[in-house]
Amino acid sequence: MIEILRQSDLSKIAHYPKSVVDAIQQSITILDENYGTNRTRDSDGGLNLVIETESDLQSLMQTLFWGDVPEFSEIIDGYVHALYLVNNDRGLDVFLPEEWATKGMKEAMET
Question: Residue 107 to residues 39, 101, 110, 111: CA-CA distances in angstroms?
Answer without folding.
Answer: 31, 10, 5, 7
